[in-house]
């Protein structure tokens, strides 16, 4: 069983699901939360709902996240355990928060189509595709967390997502029974 920041044992694991926008983080997180009864925390939605940002970035058509405010908002929930955190970044979360870090990866042409359908264009579209090509988020995860808790999973189609949810559900069951 993992310890939280106060030295107490968490009864349920915390999982971070990260990856480039369009890789299926929210779909995977929602399905996993349903399968495991863990709490799904969509950081992008949380930032909007609780105003945990420093304004709007017109160039990237998104909020400028205030990482300190996000971490303050999540601290108690993360100490408690039983969370699936869904966000495209990972290097600002405290290492102690997570028992498993999942980086979803999608083939570039599939990702391009998904992001185009979302209305991504220009620099926002090309930056996200480049981020995936160069595996920026996988490297960020490996630099931010112990490598033995970081796993990359393919997320090109609905079958991949179903398989990933099944694999992660088994991981949660095993974590619970081994702690």
Automatic annotation (TrEMBL):
InterPro entries: Adenyl_kinase_AK6, P-loop_NTPase. Keywords: ATP-binding, Cytoplasm, Kinase, Nucleotide-binding, Nucleus, Ribosome biogenesis, rRNA processing, Transferase. GO terms for cellular component: cytoplasm; nucleus. GO terms for molecular function: AMP kinase activity; ATP binding; ATP hydrolysis activity. SUPFAM superfamilies: P-loop containing nucleoside triphosphate hydrolases. It comes from the Eukaryota. Broad-specificity nucleoside monophosphate (NMP) kinase that catalyzes the reversible transfer of the terminal phosphate group between nucleoside triphosphates and monophosphates. Has also ATPase activity. Involved in the late cytoplasmic maturation steps of the 40S ribosomal particles, specifically 18S rRNA maturation. While NMP activity is not required for ribosome maturation, ATPase activity is. Associates transiently with small ribosomal subunit protein uS11. ATP hydrolysis breaks the interaction with uS11. This is Adenylate kinase isoenzyme 6 homolog. It comes from Penstemon smallii.
């Amino acid at each position: 069983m993992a310890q939280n920041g106060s030295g107490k044992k968490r009864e349920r694991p915390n999982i971070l699901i990260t990856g480039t926008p369009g890789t299926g983080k929210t779909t995977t997180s929602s399905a996993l939360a349903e399968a495991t009864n863990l709490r799904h925390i969509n950081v992008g939605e949380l930032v909007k709902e609780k105003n945990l940002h420093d304004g709007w970035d017109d160039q990237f058509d998104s909020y400028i996240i205030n990482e300190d405010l996000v971490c303050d908002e999540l601290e108690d929930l993360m100490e408690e355990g039983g969370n699936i955190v869904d966000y495209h970044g990972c290097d600002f979360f405290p290492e102690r928060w997570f028992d498993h870090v999942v980086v979803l990866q999608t083939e570039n042409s599939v990702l391009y189509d998904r992001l185009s359908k979302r209305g991504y264009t220009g620099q926002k579209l090309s930056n996200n595709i480049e981020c995936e090509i160069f595996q920026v988020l996988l490297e960020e995860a490996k630099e931010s967390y112990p490598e033995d808790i970081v796993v990359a999973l393919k997320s090109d189609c609905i079958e991949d997502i179903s398989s990933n949810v099944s694999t992660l559900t088994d991981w949660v069951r095993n974590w619970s029974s081994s702690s």
